Amino acid sequence: MGDTPKDRKQDLEYDLDPEHMIVSFFRVMNDLLVRPRAFFGGMPASGGYRPPVMFLLMCSIVFTVGSSTYLAGRTWLFALIFFANSMAMPFFTAFVLHIVVGMFFGRRNYETMFRINAYAHVTQLAAWIPYFGYLTEPWRFFLIGAGLARACGLKWSYALVSVVITFVVILLFVWSLQPVVFYFRSIITSF
User: Model confidence over 111-150: pLDDT tens digits?
Assistant: First the structure.
């Protein structure tokens, strides 16, 4: 590892390497947490879904196992729900972000939006700890904003507006699902 900016940039790994999964995972995780702007600046806009999905899968497994440790009863059901949510939200967030950015700031590639969201999901590694969600969710949205600014070339103000609008749309969507969730919750608790 060098000390010059050029050497540090060469040390970054901008995508998960499926051939060296564990080492690559920790390297990408470190780069996302320590140098997120540099990571997203060098991240390829395309290159397939496999590397970000594998990274997302590993983060989701850690989140699910961690979350399941403090659940009582029906652990398998809640673990399944946590895992499904953890895997699905980056796809959904990327979809909403793709629409928001496309409407206001010009079309961008969905794959790039998904890559940003999948790698920003690194926050799930600590989100399972009680009350850490209050810290990790704002950090995840900061990472998404950094990804929009660096990988998509948006100004920081445009990235911020995109993240806020996306957050509001997702929040409204989740609130609109509350009646359905309460219905299924009553069915599950009746067993």
Answer: 999 999 999 999 999 988 888 888 998 999 999 999 999 9
Q: What is the C-alpha to C-alpha distance for residues 144 and 119, in angstroms, rounded to an integer?
A: 9
Q: Work out the mean pLDDT of the chain and round it to a whole number.
A: 85
| Alpha-carbon gap, residue 79 to 70, rounded angstroms | 11
Best CA proximity match to 43, nearest among 112, 92, 140, 123: 112
Q: Which of 128, 46, 40, 121 is nearest to 88 (CA)?
A: 121
Here the tokens at position 77 are 């059901």
CB crowding 52-88: b at 16 or more within 10 Å, else e: bbbbbbbbbebbbebbbeeeeeeeeebbeebbeebbe
* Residue (of 83, 82, 111) closest to 97 by Cα position: 111
- Cα distance between residue 40 and residue 37, in whole Å: 5
Residue 5: its pLDDT value, please? Answer: 42
Domain ranges for the chain: 5-190
Residue 162 reports pLDDT greater than 80:
yes
Specify the 3-state DSSP secondary structure of 154: coil
Query: How confident is the model at residue 119, as a pLDDT?
Result: 94
